[in-house]
Amino acid sequence: MNQNEIKLYEARANIIKALAHPSRLFIVDMLNKQPRAVGELTEMIGADTSTVSKHLSVLKNAGIVEDEKKGTTVFYSLKTPCILNFISCIEDVIESNTKTQVEILSCCRTRAAK
Amino acid sequence: MNQNEIKLYEARANIIKALAHPSRLFIVDMLNKQPRAVGELTEMIGADTSTVSKHLSVLKNAGIVEDEKKGTTVFYSLKTPCILNFISCIEDVIESNTKTQVEILSCCRTRAAK
DNA sequence: TTCTTATATGGCAATTTAGCCAAATAAGAA
DNA sequence: TTCTTATTTGGCTAAATTGCCATATAAGAA
Which of A65, A6, A84 is nearest to B21 (CA)? Predict the structure, then answer.
């Protein structure tokens, strides 16, 4: 890897890191349906407001969501909808992993039954 | 989030975490072209063999790559090609972020020129 | 102005991750 | 068997991440 390649893969990794957390993936799913205020998301997630605010800030810094202030309320919305295709791919991986597990289990059950 | 939702988002996050590292993204790109031995990837990345081996193990545990031993050499290959669509989405995010930066810069230059 | 509501930020301890070295293992060659 | 090559694993320290609490800020209401 030369310097340019390193920069490229670091840039990609930074965005992916922003997605690599259960609460932040939940937020992406929610914002796909409609924009939401910090307070709404906080209630749905069930964590401290400051925690959710920081998660949103991580997503915002990565360019995945954007915010708009209305009065004292800040509404967040999804900036890059293609993120959702990506999640469907992750589901494919999970499905594939599940199949592998099933195969392993059926293998062992057969052996045990012998 | 109820317990099932938490499990779902944790499962997704675990797979995404496996991708959230420059070297591992590089590996995914390389394996998309062709299967590679640990030694080849190690040389391309320029890190310790043990480090690369551990990165490969992370990807394998996540179900993203699979391995096949031939003699003393272990060849890794991409198990879930859709991972690449996802990376193209990440590129979209990077492009969008770059555009935002350009807008910010052009805004400030205009101001400074006044 | 002060009060209240909504968010963001600072700070800290606990947990996780990364990468190197050294040592262990696997498989074939001599 | 011993030697060699390829890879993995254990162990360790350094760095990054997480989540809560307390505090600060922003904006409107009184």
Answer: A6
